[in-house]
Structures are given as structure tokens and as C-alpha cells.
Automatic annotation (TrEMBL):
CDD domains linked to this entry: FReD
GO cellular component: extracellular space
Organism for this UniProt entry: Mytilus galloprovincialis (Mediterranean mussel)
Pfam hit, one: Fibrinogen_C
PROSITE patterns, A to Z: FIBRINOGEN_C_2
Protein name: Fibrinogen C-terminal domain-containing protein
Top-rank taxon, per record: Eukaryota
PANTHER family registered for this protein in UniProt: FIBRINOGEN C-TERMINAL DOMAIN-CONTAINING PROTEIN-RELATED, FIBRINOGEN/TENASCIN/ANGIOPOEITIN
NCBIfam families cross-referenced by the UniProt entry: GGGWT_bact (NF040941)
Residues of the Fibrinogen C-terminal domain: 33-210
Length: 212
């Protein structure tokens, strides 16, 4: 009887071990399937063989809904998720912190993808280190109604008519006023030797660093 009890105990343990092996086997397979059927950025679509630039639906891990993005599948190898685009001044970029947080505009033309989305994509693509980290150079994202810049006395977003990771107003103002010359215009600091060179068209896009 004692031997039988021991045998049953042994069999129970074996079944339990098999069960947990099966569960772990499934959970290690499922994320792979999920990643393939629910791309989280444009690079994932590229890996699935999609090589035409255009609007795609991505599935961010913390969002139950799909998010529309524009994918650039051509520039320098493609796989880029566009996070900002300026073209013609039709979209107002001088707007609230909340608008910048959730995103605004139309992905086929002028738009800002939204800080929440940008943060999630960079985090899960593993390139938050050298890209648009949310405390870029120690400064948060600022809008006129949300001053998180590096200047104690000035509201940089208000002064430069935009929304950005302003430090001490300023080196770049890519979300400034379209068509406006001077310090409220669209400026990317390092372009044209740090002169106040106003841009008409800009596109900001991201992809995992492993590709570079
Ligand atoms: Ca300030």
C-alpha cells in the first residue's frame, strides 16, 4: 500500500511537471505569433515583407485599439514610423499639452503622432536610449500650457510658438509656426550651421537602432 501511494505521488508529480512544461511551451510561442500578427511599428511591417510607404495600423502593447501611422519604407532602408510631418501649414501645431499627448492631425498629411504613442513605440523598439527619451537632456515636453523647459524665467513653448522638448529656449523648434520667419518659425538647430533657417517641410521618424 505504501508503495502504491508513493507511485501515485510520483505519477502526480510527473503530470504536474508535464502540465507546466506545456504551459511554458505555449507562452513562449504565443508572443511570437502576436508580434507577427500585430505589428507594433513600421519596422515590424517591413519584416513581414511590406515595402510600400503608406498608412498602416500598428498595435501598441498598452493600447487595446489599433493606431494609424504613416510608414516610410523607402528612406535609407525604410521601416520608419513617422511621428511628425509638416508640409503646408494646414494643421495648427500651437496647441495644448493634452493634444501633444494624444496626437493630432492626419497621418497622410500634417500631424503629430502623440507623445504617448511615441513613448510606447520607442520603449518597445528598444531605442529609447538615444532617441526621443521623455526627459530629453533633462527636459520634459513643453507646450504653452505646460512649461517643463530648462528656462526658469521664460515659457519657451509660448515664446517660440510650438511644442517640444525645449531646453533653454532653444535649439530646435520643429513644431513652430509654419511659414513664419525668425524665432517662432520651424527650425532645426543643427541644420544650416545653427542659423535661424526656417524650414517648410519636415518629417520626424523613428525605427529600432538595431537596424542602423
Ligand atoms: Ca520655463
Amino acid at each position: 500500500m505504501a508503495a502504491l501511494t508513493a507511485l501515485v505521488k510520483e505519477m502526480k508529480e510527473e503530470i504536474s511537471a508535464m502540465k507546466s512544461a506545456m504551459v511554458s511551451g505555449f507562452t513562449s510561442v504565443c508572443p511570437l505569433i502576436a508580434a507577427q500578427t500585430k505589428p507594433k511599428d513600421c519596422r515590424d511591417y517591413q519584416l513581414l515583407g511590406r515595402n510600400v510607404s503608406g498608412v498602416y495600423n500598428i498595435y501598441l502593447p498598452e493600447s487595446k485599439e489599433k493606431t494609424q501611422v504613416y510608414c516610410d519604407m523607402e528612406t535609407e532602408g525604410g521601416g520608419w514610423t513617422v511621428i511628425q510631418k509638416r508640409r503646408d501649414g494646414t494643421q495648427n501645431f500651437y496647441t495644448s499639452y493634452n493634444d501633444y499627448e494624444v496626437g493630432f492631425g492626419n497621418v497622410t498629411s500634417e500631424h503629430w503622432l502623440g507623445n504617448k504613442n511615441i513613448y510606447t513605440i520607442t520603449r518597445y523598439s528598444g531605442d529609447a536610449g538615444d532617441s526621443l527619451a521623455f526627459d530629453h537632456n533633462g527636459h520634459g515636453f513643453s507646450t504653452a500650457d505646460h512649461d517643463k523647459d530648462g528656462s526658469r524665467d521664460i515659457n519657451c513653448a509660448q515664446k517660440h510658438h510650438g511644442g517640444y522638448w525645449y531646453s533653454g529656449c532653444f535649439k530646435s523648434n520643429i513644431n513652430g509656426l509654419w511659414g513664419k520667419p525668425g524665432e517662432q518659425g520651424i527650425i532645426w538647430g543643427s541644420f544650416h550651421s545653427w542659423q535661424m533657417y526656417v524650414l517648410k517641410e519636415t518629417t520626424m521618424m523613428i525605427r529600432p537602432t538595431a537596424l542602423n
